[in-house]
Write a structure and sequence with these properties.
Helices cover about 80% and strands about 0% of the residues. The chain contains 6 helices and no strands. Helix 2 runs antiparallel to helix 4, helix 2 (about 10-30) packs antiparallel against helix 6 (about 105-145) and helix 5 packs antiparallel against helix 6. The chain is elongated, with a radius of gyration of 19 Å. It starts with a helix and ends in a 9-residue tail after the last helix. By secondary structure, the protein is an all-alpha fold.
Length: about 160
């Protein structure tokens, strides 16, 4: 669906990177904290994946696919406009979910802690990795456009 949305398979794959890494970190936190998989924690992977994709879509929708000479300016514009929205959303929702930590039902406490953590981790990965990956994608596209064609007559 992302490939159709962005009209680019590369952008779709890049949008999955922060969300996938967020899942790894979230389950790593679960393992390190010895938090069991239960009703509350089983929902976290879907939420973390959805939030991670959502942040990436917001980022790449603003960024699009600039020409190689426009990448730096487009990244500054994207981070200045969309970046703050992602940060504010992550902070607000994480703060609200972290209130569940003060509850008495352990599955809900774990859910609040892990979901709030996943929101913040997803925000960080989106804002740190997607600019670098966007720059890499622009470089790959410009390199492919400038790649010399093989001379078949020379062989």
């Amino acid at each position: 669906i992302l490939a159709l949305f962005f009209r680019s398979l590369l952008m779709a794959v890049l949008a999955l990177v922060p969300a996938s890494l967020t899942l790894l970190v979230t389950f790593g936190i679960m393992g390190a904290s010895e938090i069991p998989m239960d009703v509350g924690t089983s929902m976290i992977s879907g939420i973390a994946l959805g939030v991670g994709i959502d942040y990436a879509v917001h980022f790449f929708w603003r960024y699009r696919q600039p020409r190689a000479d426009e990448v730096s300016a487009r990244l500054r514009e994207t981070l200045g406009a969309t970046g703050w929205g992602i940060v504010i959303n992550a902070l607000e929702v994480s703060l609200g979910l972290s209130l569940l930590v003060f509850g008495t039902v352990m599955p809900m406490r774990n859910f609040g802690l892990l979901t709030a953590s996943a929101m913040l981790v997803s925000c960080l990965f989106t804002l740190l990795l997607l600019p670098a990956l966007g720059r890499l994608a622009a470089h790959l596209r410009s390199g492919a456009a400038k790649a010399p064609t093989p001379n078949r007559e020379a062989t």
